[in-house]
Amino acid sequence: MKSLIRGGRRWEIAPPPEENIVDKIVTSLSCARPFAIILARRGGERWRDLIDPDIDRFHSPFLLSGMDEAVARIIHAIDKEERVYIHGDFDADGLTGAAVLYEGLCRVFPGGRIKVDVGDRENGHGLSKKFVQRAITEDFNLVITVDCGISNTREVKMLAEAGIDTIVTDHHLPAEEIPAAVAVIDAHQQGDSYPNRHLAGVGVAFKFICALYERLGRPVPYELLDLVALGTIADLVPLADGPEIENRALVRKGFSLIMQGKGSSLGLQVLANRLSVNVKRISARDIGYFIAPKLNAANRAGDPKVAFLLLTTRDRKRAEYLTEILLDYNKDREIAQHDLIAQAEQQLAASGANPRDDGIVVLSGENWNEGILGLAASSLAERYHVPAIVISEGSRVSRASCRSVEGFDMSECLSAHSDLLLRYGGHKMAAGFSLENDRLPQLRERLREYIAQQP
Fold first, then answer.
1. CA pair distance 361, 347, nearest whole angstrom
2. Long-range contacts of 419-422, Cβ-Cβ distance < 8 Å, separation of 24 or more
């Protein structure tokens, strides 16, 4: 695959498609040849899947390891009227996933038995000690994670010791040790046979609801797919290529619901209308560039619970009120992002470093806004075409966001340095970690050595 750089961006030029496939597309669709070429490049022999994926592309949720155990445990909780605590991550994927799980469970659970927490930047991604203490103090029987938990071995153990069961639903890469939960649902865990390993966190949550409803003999609540589509687009998971075409089908069905006004989330409709998004012709661009960033502004410059409440409210006035709060958060986020990226660029220029020669960018500053670290890392990685790590140095502990480029596995990199880190997690392209400040110089040195050893 050829590559070239234009305007500071690296463009990958795909090889030409097979002419017989292009001819078949032109004949079948009566379309222009340039369009057929694009479709053939992206889909090959399975080009039809790109334009017409359907729910028959959905894989059985019971192919996911741990699903049988998870469904049995939640049915027990329903029968015994237990108290359930949902913990979702605070980004758009986690927020929509928590909303899907909450909405799905509320329809089959006794009233008032479910509580939701979506965390915050202060306590970091995943289960925190503060959350565990709250679950114990408030006497919950069951904790369910959404878009997190696969790295929370210690916290799951603490919950178990207090008599609280945990179901982990996640899509991040697991470490060597899997939490000793009553069920772990993550297609990346060893031995899992689920065909689509790239479900978003909200996709995993929806699969859990599908399995539960199937076991209860109830119709699957497909109206929740508006939220699934939102979270799936926001988390940038693959939408094509083999088994991952399921993600495309989830998004297509979700968009159809949004366009018809039949989705589950009034708040999503209100937010889209406030942003002048034409919901009758909703697109991935609308989600990725307008809607999802407003939801994420809550965790970057405010309270993530506001975004969750917006997604789940059934009151239009309340939805309008919460939308205005999100827009205020977003204004604050824009200012903070501009300031942090400027500081990072100044630090890089002052150091005299050449990121393309070094193969990585690692920058840090005292008390940098943790909600903006990922945006700054993305900006640097895109500008210099190398992995970027941006670190906020606290009084004792530093926290970082990492963004990568094609060909460099950031999750694998952090795993190789796990002995220096307090916590870490993420994907090949995006990850995060925390470490004690006095270990930062050693980490910088080892990262340089690690990069030098890469092919």
1. 11
2. 420/446, 422/397
Beta-bridged to residue 167, according to DSSP, are: 144, 183
The token pair that represents 373 in the structure block: 């670290």
The CATH number of 353-452, from 3.30.530.20, 3.10.310.30, 3.40.605.10, 3.30.710.10, is 3.10.310.30
Decide if domain 61-323 falls under CATH 3.90.1640.30: yes
Beta-bridged to residue 183, according to DSSP, are 167
Q: What is the DSSP string of 234-300?
A: HTT----SGGGHHHHHHHHHHHHHHHHT-SS-HHHHHHHHHTT--GGG--HHHIIIIIHHHHHHHHH
| N- to C-terminal Cα separation, the chain | 18
Round to whole Å and give the CA distance between 369 and 362: 16
Sequence spans of domains, the chain: 2-49, 61-323, 353-452
Tokens of 421: 């880190």
Q: What is the pTM of this model?
A: 0.86
CA 312 – CA 320 distance, rounded (Å): 13
| Closest among 216, 150, 160, 211 to 186, alpha carbons compared | 150
Q: Is residue 354 very low, low, confident or very high in pLDDT (cuts 50, 70, 90)?
A: confident
Beta strands in 89-230 (DSSP E): 114-117, 142-146, 165-169, 183-185
Q: What's the token pair of residue 383?
A: 């500008």
Concatenating the DSSP letter of every residue in 224-235 gives GHHHHHHHHHHT
Neighbours of 241 (CB within 10 A): 16
CA 448 to each of CA 146, 260, 396, 420, 451: distance values in angstroms, whole numbers, following the listed order: 34, 52, 24, 15, 5
Per residue in 142-177, pLDDT (tens digit) is 999 999 999 999 999 999 999 999 999 999 989 889
pLDDT higher than 50, residue 209:
yes
Computed on alpha carbons and rounded to an integer, the radius of gyration of the chain in Å comes to: 22
